[in-house]
Amino acid sequence: MKNRYQPPTPLTGRIDSSTDTDAFRWHQIIQPIDLTKAIKFDTALVNICFLGFCCDEGVKRNLGRPGAAKGPASIRKEMANWPANCLPHAQLFDAGDITCRDGNLEEAQEALAKAVDIISQNGFFPILLGGGHEIALGHFNGLIKNNATPAIINFDAHLDLRPVIDKGSSGTMFNQIHQQCKEHNETFNYLCIGAQTYANTQSLFNKAKEMGADYILAKDISSATIKSIEQQVMDYLRDKPTVYLTICTDVLSAAHAPGVSAVQPFGLEPDIVLQLIKGIIASGKLCSMDIAEVSPRFDADNRTAKLVAVYIYAVVNSLIELKLNQ
Questions:
Q1: DSSP 1
Q2: pLDDT tens, residue by residue, 192-237
Q3: Cβ atoms of residues 241 and 232 within 8 Å
């Protein structure tokens, strides 16, 4: 991990007061931590740790539009000025980034796995910032180093079950995870929400059926069907002890998320996705999450990064609400 790990740089932003905590913003309360050193925090609080994955090598291999390697910085910039109304119930930490400047995706994913393991073993709730969706393989492998295998919920226009030809990419991760589970006699539990029929071949839908994977098509998700979709998600979670949530921003409509590796003109509405995310958190089973494929070079007015930052803000407050209600 050492050669791939970049400790955090403190965030900056607007300052309304340096003494009134009610006027503080996130950049004033996020504490930078170095994963190579001892970590101390108040275990009575909700402790959330951000980690970036500055990599889009998987996107390049998948013949997508590169640029997501700069996603973590773009998301952090938008997060920095959120009001710190998570106080006094939560502590926010930033552990820096895992980088991939030389194209060695496999080594970067292994470094990411080690970093995630350190974060989770120290009792933090990890929120990872992508980077290409190849973040999912390293993230998942970090979660299972010292914990039981979680179920997976993936908000995505793509099933990402493509076969590995020579090397993995941003379209192969869940196929790779399935193979790992098979080799270790573990159950592969996977639900993809928002899959587009025009973005997946019939072979991929056949592969999902063969693997026992579940999916909910984007065309079946709307404000009129949201209650039914929420019930499907709860039914999926019913017998799952823990769940890892991964969000590819290309699941969203291009009108709201233009800065992604593969834009979706018929993607999901942001409020529907947020409602489903909040339901997953309310289940009490969420162990970790990431948001992938924010690509600043295509992000007009930083709309995608701002939307993702709003999601993260909502996730933090939903985790606090869950803690207070327990």
A1: -
A2: 999 999 999 999 999 999 999 999 999 999 999 999 999 999 999 9
A3: no
